[in-house]
Specification:
By secondary structure, this protein is mostly beta strands. The protein is 10% helix and 61% strand. About 3% of the residues have low confidence.
Length: 173
């Protein structure tokens, strides 16, 4: 599984580094560090206490780092911490305060709106799962340094999938 993650990251980085536009970039604000608050919906998730109610919302907090390569392309590293424990129905798999690490690339479709594609791993004390993430964010610039970014994401895992939404507050430097 680690080989697949490394290969996927290499392909993403190689593709986007070679596809950079040759536009002059400002030497300022190439980096963004964000804190994100969100909820993931697990269609196959159930609460530990009531295993009959299919579908479960899990709160999360995350830290994102974005490195601007050009006006269109960015690299991103995401670390999300789930703040709950639950079961994956039909698989009898328990997830407890999982940590999700994803690296990938973002493409700016139009000013302020981007799509993201990445891969990584979801870990907790019970299991490790491969994660493929696709999503979109819209950056609302509060000032030259601060940005508010609502986002929607889909995570594919071979055991289950999640749909999530987040609100990130980022600092450009």
């Amino acid at each position: 599984m680690i080989k697949h993650i490394i290969l996927g990251l290499f392909i993403i980085c190689y593709t986007f580094l070679n596809a950079q536009e040759h536009e002059p970039m400002s030497v300022h604000n190439k980096n963004t560090l964000s804190i994100a608050f969100g909820y993931a919906y697990l269609p196959d998730g159930v609460k530990i206490e009531s295993q009959n109610d299919l579908g479960h919302f899990v709160p999360s907090i995350g830290i994102d780092y974005i490195r601007k390569l050009s006006h269109k392309f960015e690299l991103i590293a995401v670390v999300d911490f789930e703040l709950d424990h639950y079961l994956v129905s039909g698989k009898d798999i328990m997830r407890e305060n999982a940590t999700i690490v994803v690296v990938g690339a973002m493409y700016n479709i139009i000013e302020h709106w981007s799509v993201m594609l990445g891969s990584g791993i979801e870990m907790d004390k019970h299991h490790q799962l491969f994660v493929a993430r696709i999503g979109t964010e819209y950056g609302i610039h509060l000032s030259d340094k601060w940005v508010l970014s609502p986002g929607i994401f889909y995570d594919y895992k071979h055991i289950h999938s999640t749909y999530s939404t987040s609100l990130a507050l980022g600092y450009n430097f």
